[in-house]
């Protein structure tokens, strides 16, 4: 097992009616900005529950944070936070609203000239306006981690920011909200969380027995609840397990002491930046091709996945490794998701070369746990996913 540092200070308030208790953990007397997206929270009744819980606080609202949160929109909120002396931010939404709130939190206290530097300079973010979250869509794990992914439409960039200052103070996880989530977003959540585990598990063995079995448990639970959730999102027990899996897939526990990859996500983010494809769909497009190109480097863990997660006992080592990748592709297909770019985008000529060039321009010459995914290999991976 490799050395690691671990901290996760986010308080989780999990279960039915927990939205009503969050006033206990917001600083008394704080001026609160409630941030949300395109309005789903009003249709689902979550908005009313949040406002009832905030009775007694001075509250202002900022709505319209889009999926793949846009720098330009977020900067409008930053100006209000600064001019109105907002003391606490409350994100109510999915990964986009939470990530957007993380950026607003950091940018509101940023003293440099251009807040986009918070992202491009890639320095760890150590401070921000304190914030909590009410999760309405299980998927990204943003509710319990210190990462955010922000888009700049003007330059077609979608980039990660991270740092200990971006941990939410608390996150409310009420599985009842899952009953309101449309099928498309449920499927996205089941794919994104699955991919988060794979990025931290499908590398090479380092004898991290507990982390491996933790990852396998999250994968097996997702596989078990996926069909139940898609057919009946009002099944509370399945929703609770789905929601907690999504959080555990990316709250830092799985990456302790193990090598991590994140190449699928890096390539996927470029597809979203170019074509506005849903984040999870980009992962389904990239993953099968990525893992087939990396089958040699990842063979041991693919075999472990085949044996322990899928239950495959027959075949040669190579057959088992390839069967693991087939299973991953089949998991996406069974959720109704095709794994080729041409299923979603009409004109993708030159896309693979464009992504490889972007990586070269950024100095990203080797992605993956062994930095072996060169721009040339990225081109091959994306072309094979056309
Ligand atoms: O905007 P509203 O009206 O709220 O509608 C949203 C949005 O259209 C809707 N929705 C959310 N909760 C709902 C609901 N509709 C009905 N009922 C509910 N209860 O769902 C749509 C998608 O929401 P979004 O937040 O965009 O989805 P998701 O949670 O999948 O977040 C995706 C973003 O997170 C980033 C992605 O790159 C993408 O920008 N990620 C963040 C990560 C992190 N911070 O650690 C890691 C991930 O890998 C990912 O990159
Ligand atoms: Zn993701």
Automatic annotation (TrEMBL):
**Keyword field contains Oxidoreductase:** yes
Keyword terms, alphabetized: Oxidoreductase
Q: What is its EC number?
A: 1.1.1.1
**Main enzyme class:** oxidoreductase
Please give the name of this protein: Iron-containing alcohol dehydrogenase
Q: Name the source organism.
A: Halosquirtibacter laminarini
Its organism's taxonomic lineage begins at: Bacteria, Pseudomonadati, Bacteroidota, Bacteroidia, Marinilabiliales
